[in-house]
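Entry 12.
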Amino acid sequence: MKHSRIYLIILLILIIIFSIYNFTIYTSKSDYGTIHLSKKAIDGENIWLTNNCNSCHQIYGLGGYLGPDLTNIVSVKGKDKAYIKALLSSGIKAMPRFNFKETEKEALYQFLEEIDKTGHYPNVNASIENDGWVRIKYKKVNHEK
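Predicted 3D structure (tokens):
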């Protein structure tokens, strides 16, 4: 009986420590800055969501797997604004043709451009620290443009 009481106390202490640790990790905002999208990029994000683009494409590896990850598509050499807008108009392989207005294509491109500036995916320069935080290398400028 005495041993089970000790085990129960140890278990409760571990649960309390675990709860405090998780609360600290998931409520701390000190290790990442606020990311603001422009109004035009938010319009592009709404178009992205309305047309269910994330069912086929990913951003930061989250989304569907039929199409490529588009996190850094704007930085890829040869895939400039005209190329991306042409894909939106004509489609390619499994991607359907969309009848976007020019303003919608501009907004989608702005969304992809601002997402591109937030970081690299996959981020091979990330490291896991002893305290459990993942340190990532943030993107400063576009590459290969």
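Annotation: Residues 37 and 114 are 7 Å apart (CA to CA). The two ends are 71 Å apart (CA to CA).
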